[in-house]
Amino acid sequence: MFKNKKRSYRIYLGIIVLLIASLALSGIGKAWYYFNSGADRSRALNLPPNIPDAHTPLIEWLPDDPNTGRAMEPFTRQQIMGDYIRGLYQWQLSYLAGKPVGLKEYFTPSSYPKALNTISTLERKKLTLHQTDLEHHIQLHFYSADGQIVSFTDKRVLHKQRLYQNNTKLFTTESIDDFDVVMLLDDGYWRLKHFVKRTPSATTSLKKDSLLDKSKMVSIRKNQFWLYGKAFQPKGINYYPQQTPWSFFWTKYDSTIIKKDFRKIQQLGFNTIRIFINFQDFERGTVPELRLLQLENVLTNAEKAHLKVIVTLFDFMGDYRLLNFAPSDRQLETILRRFQKHPAILAWDLKNEPDLDFKHHPTEDVKEWLAWILPRAKQYDPNHLITIGWAYPENASLFKDQVDFVSFHSYRSLNDLTAGIDLLKKQVNSKAIVLEEFGVSTYRGIWAPLGGSEEKQATYFREVQKILKQKGNVPYLAWTLYDFSDVPADIAGKYPWQRNPQRYFGILKKDGSPKKAALLFK
Amino acid sequence: MLKLDHIVMLFLLLWVFSRCKHDAPISSNGAVQLESDSTLTVGAGLVVGIHPVNIPLGEKILITCQNSWGMDVLEKEVNGSSIRLILSKKFTRISGMITLKVFYLGKELGRKQIEVLPKKTAEPLDAYLGAKSILADGKDWAMITAIPTDTFGNPVENHTPITYEILRPDGTQYEIQATTENLVSFQIINSLTKAGKTFIGVSLNGVASREKELLEVADFPVNFTIKADSHSIYADDHQFFKIKTSVLRDRNNNIMPEGTAVSFLCKEPSGTGRFLNSYTIDGVAELSMQNPKEAGTLEIIASVYGGGKSNVLTLDFASPIDHINARYEAVNQRLNVGPLIAQLNQLVPNGTQVKLVFDNNKLPTLLQEVVDGHAYFDFTDLPKGDYPVTIFVYGIGKKFVINRK
User: Fold this and answer.
1) pTM value?
2) Residue A1: is its pLDDT beyond 60?
3) CATH number of the domain to which B340 belongs
4) Is-contact A93 A106, C-beta < 8 A?
5) B395 Cα to chain A: minimum distance (Å)
6) What ipTM does this complex have?
């Protein structure tokens, strides 16, 4: 009896000691992180929650009516659409705030109370409406001689709505309607006077994206990648320049380094690279020409080095609110329409590891965004392949019917990788699968005294290659080309034991010299 | 006896159960059917029958009503095979399509669209005229636009007949029948060749707009003439005379609107030129000018920016004096110029300028004004000696030698 009691006390004491030790370790880690990270600007300046500053839905002018009273100048079209779209955006922001926010300027005195009424109706019921308009197809009917009255139909306006009560989502819904609109120019603003909802017309978009001769592009037939009429086996590496990884890739872009690196990648035996388009660096819905030229330069250099490119979009975009749907759609359209004929592109990877966002965002919202963006991508570029880079194989079968091949990442054990591929193959049937990221760190130091080594890394890569071959020659892309000097906190985690190993996943050292694993890809 | 580890186990079990309850999936295989009129007129009550299928009694469903200007959300409890939903008249005051959607457990179970038609036109009838004034050149045009609405401010239905009654400057009056299309109706008013006012009235179904007034103004003027009124022929720099234009008209004989700017270019006998401006009243512009101070020819031409110009008017001015009297008064050490006698044997007017130029150009030119026919030049401070000078009055010169002792 006494012995049993003594043993129980020892167990409890051991648990308490363990708890104290882990708390102390966590405290040290937090202190380390605090002194090694910059201030949070939004917290320091007490900024309001991040809301897109510009609303960028799809706007398309359909042919004008034969008799519009007067021909409309392109500048006026811009002015009218600018105020119309901004007015709708302010309306949506007002729904979020439960009170009018900058609304008055965009409505005439007779229509303003109508707009206000719906906001107060929902506010009274403690309901919050998240709403966004995503497509507008405008047909001009009338433009007055003095340039102060305009009448048009906004056809097939695509609205998405989510209704919340006490932060609980009640439902999400979508609708397509036509709206007959009259606007008046008053005091420098085009103001909404009439807004009449109609049954949606059958008109479709004027923009037709041409299908190319796909023999010039990588395609998939019977679970196999093809190029120029021959089987093509993607064997690639995820790429960031050594000095400018992650968001520095675009902001400190250097084409001479890219050119040299691509030559090096080709010499190492790879035929494919995977790059990342940072959503913020590409300025959300208004992609600057400079970024497009940089991306064009990457693709052209890759083509010269006989490399195919998987372009991963929306990197570091972790906002699945409806207000972010329009900017993401505009960025997608701008990039995909621009490069829909570029032969260097193997595929568009629509999102890097969206399943990691399941932890921090409602899973349904993430899935709704993916379900929205997938058909849009197909529409904007019918020539290239589409995939999603899932973090875990158990999630990779989501949207399997909408993607051209299924991609997943693996940083788990080799057994887990084998099991993951088996599971995935069962779930996706005959669909091609690609191991888009895998790797192991060679870091060994204070934060991982028994950590990795070049030998361990080489062994790991060799084993992975063996497994992938056994599983039917699964194409792969290793993580990553270089070791990095620093890794941002939002990549691997904020603690030093998380960040330091992340710096040593490269198959080349910081100085560019090869590690042992670098020789395994020829 | 209850041991500590038993208590811990109990708490653990409770926690696990509580998690299980929260994570339990909720699913619905329910459906609904919606029944109502497919159209109604604004402001009328709307009754919707909702027939739920496979939704347990006591459960709540959400009904969203989306009209042109936003959404209302209603909650109803399923208490039988049918739910009666009455939409308030306030909600149906807005025309356009209403979309009803029914949600249960976040899933949309059914939707229905109902068209709300606007009422007939009510006051005020909004009519807009632009531009407010046009040229009466037979080419320019303005537009009258009407945006009729019903009692609730909804735009009336397409194809609603509308009447424009128009009275033109030439006295003609006519009526145009049109219809509303895409919420508006408009008519183009082409200008005539007679300047004046056009009055427009818009009406439909007995509802009238305010009177709209369009100004049709004359086009740019054609060439015109100018003449001088009652001018004296002497360059005395004293009298005024008037230049008058003929009535300025456009090519359609319309008199230019009041205040049309006319610019006069005057070239003086001395060769200097200047612009003087005037404005029309009743189509005529007038300009008052002072006689030149030197004998010679004054040339004047008038023009309207962008329009016609006048003839060149030439006016000859003679000198009002034919000789200059002058003598040096040694006592006062001054030069007395005068008496200066004008064309009618009268003294020249006070204030007439007399200029004295030293011929050797070493001393500055002196100016004096005539008072009672004389002008005096004081040489008290002048060193002794002979000074040849020239005296000018009205452009006439006289040589003189001042002998300062």
Assistant:
1) 0.81
2) no
3) 2.60.40
4) no
5) 59
6) 0.83
